[in-house]
Amino acid sequence: MRGMKIALASTLLIAGATVALATSEADFKAAYAAAEAANKEAGSLRNQWTTTAATLAAARKAADSGDFDAGVAAAREAEALAKASIFQATSEKTRWKDMEIR
After folding, report:
1. Where do the structural domains in the chain lie, given as residue ranges?
2. Please, are residues 58 and 72 in contact by the beta-carbon 8 Å criterion?
């Protein structure tokens, strides 16, 4: 139990140190590109969420104003949303058959 607490505390310290570092424009561009790629894949599956587009716009707006920390955070959120929409599209491709009355 004590070892688990130490491991958890170490992980939180490392995560906190990573977040505490100021992000740069290059970090934003990388995060935004990943989010756009995931959103494009969701589009190819015909399952883009409107919330993803809004979050991408918020990320771009934050970065344009020079707030790269908020831009990266929004881009990562947009990527997560896009990946969730991809998961939804692929899982529902066959799951509808389970709902059909036989």
Report:
1. 22-99
2. no
pTM above 0.85, yes or no: no
pLDDT digits (tens, 9 = 90+) for 52-61: 999 999 999 9
Tokens 């009355």 identify what position? Answer: 101
- Around Cβ 45, how many Cβ atoms within 10 Å? 13
Closest residue by Cα to residue 85 from 51, 55, 60: 51
Instruction: Please state, in angstroms and rounded to a whole number, the distance separating the CA atoms of residues 74 and 92.
Output: 27
**pLDDT tens per residue across span 27-49:** 999 999 999 999 999 999 999 99
Secondary structure letter of residue 65 according to DSSP: T
Count of H helices and E strands in the chain?
4, 0
Residue 56, Cα to own-chain centre: how many angstroms?
10
